[in-house]
Amino acid sequence: MKRLKNLASLLTRPKPPVGTTPADVVHRENKWRLLRYRPAPGQARKFQTPVLLVPSLINRHYVMDLLPGKSMAQDLVAAGHDVYCIDWGTPGDEDRFVDFDDVCDKYLGRAIRHVARSSPRNKTHVLGYCLGGTLATIHAAARPEHVASLLLLAAPVSFTDEGALAAWTRSPQFNVGSIVQGFGNVPWQLMQSAFHMLRPTLTMAKAVGVIDRAANDEFLDGFLALETWGNDNVAFPGECYRQYIEQLYRGDALMQGTFSLSGTPARLENITCPVTCVVFEHDNIVPWQSAAALIDRVRSKEKILLKLPGGHVGAVVSKAAQKNLWPKMSAFWAQHDAAPEAKVTPPPAPSAPRPKRPTRPARAGKAPRPKAKAAATG
Amino acid sequence: MIWDLWKKGFYAWEDATAKYVEGWTKSPLLLGPSGMMLGGAMKAKAAYDKAASSWVGNLGLATKRDQERALHVLNQIESRLIDLEERLAEMQKKDDTRT
User: Fold this and answer.
1) Does the pLDDT value for residue A322 go beyond 90?
2) What pLDDT score was predicted for residue A13?
3) Among A61, A202, A205, B95, which one is most buried in terms of CB atoms within 10 A?
């Protein structure tokens, strides 16, 4: 009976309260904003290295802050992290000229530097999800100075997989130049229909799932929130899209080592910070092999590959993720919170007293490296 | 019981159909013509937009593209200003540390 009642109320049900964790806008430029989540009263920031969440360019940032009580950002703040998130905003018609360097170097670089400045280490942990992970990887490869660690969720780096998206974009008849010429920014409707085509029967499967679990209010709230997010997409800046398809999808430039960011080579081998790469077994948007390829290429002494069951979105925001994945992420950052140099015994004090100076973060590179942790693959 | 049985059958059908459709969507037989259709439509749209904007341009008015370029340049100037502010703040910080 409750199932029927809930199904009947689906149309009149109030819009789910998505992205409601309180946050301050600490930087604003063009259409993007940098948000800093506020800890709830009674909560304190326990860690000195902040965390920057980088969502995909074509989806709204609030997937990281879906619902109260089911929000990654809220949970991380509650765990004591200082959490920042990029909201890429909605590109205007003039942003058709925004290119990959603008997004990945200028905007992301600014966000990373801004967040890093709030830490005594002058570094930040970076979490990238989907295309946001690709951006974070490229940035860390070209400009690693302020990146304390890299945590990537379903972030494609190799584009030679057999997935449908790779097949479509590699097709010689797919003329990316004419799409950008015709549309300016690539409309979200075009991209969303492509995602629907990946599994056209998914809508029916979802409907059956909803009928099956309609009696569960919590499930319905989560489902509606996810659908709200899934249908609230943004256009892809045209020039950026052209480079993304031509260089990354068609040229596989990241894996070939030929990609450059504002003229600086972005080689995956340049990444030496601790890396955790989370891939999802049933991900049909980013096949897990496409994301896992990073692990073999980075020179980090600590690199972890986590292969989890689930799909591209569900596995990141589900109840299971809240129980298993998010605590693991928090533990990874907690483990790498203090700079390795901070743990080193200070050198003996000089014989003559020195004039007092303001404290400066210890210089990296002079301290011994932390003991390597065995790379775990699952 | 009947619902569970039906559900099992449905998911088996859904999985098989999805795999079959995926095979087709990756087939050059489908990708070729659909890519050409999309490309052709886009070229037609770009040609129409160009003709319309040249008409507006001939009247001495700013075209949509002109406005887009101007706005983009303004955004770039804003970014450069923020760059400069950032550098100045860094220099100031270094100076403060020294003194």
Assistant:
1) yes
2) 83
3) A61
